[in-house]
Amino acid sequence: MSDPHQELDFLSDSTEATSTRFVTFIGGSLKRFDLAVTSTNRFYGKKLVMDLHNGRTAILGTDDLDEEGYLEHIYQLNEEEGSELRTFLYQVLGEPYFTD
């Protein structure tokens, strides 16, 4: 059993003001999406997208939306549901940016 008083080796620890958009929508598949989309200065301009029903979260940018089957895998969706989520996310995700 590990010692609960052992020291932790923090690699990062910061606090940042973020903005979160809560969105609920239903597509043609009749699947209800309840999402929290958090904008932050981290992740090279990508956003944290959480499915509030199943707790699955991903860091996404529009480049990720072009990866076949990516959303379906992360959020456990069928092809039609993935297409509906992809359509919505193209409207809210900005282009990623990279720094040195």
TrEMBL record:
It comes from Paenibacillus mellifer. InterPro entries: SAV0927-like. This is DUF3055 domain-containing protein. It comes from the Bacteria. The lineage of its organism: Bacteria, Bacillati, Bacillota, Bacilli, Bacillales.
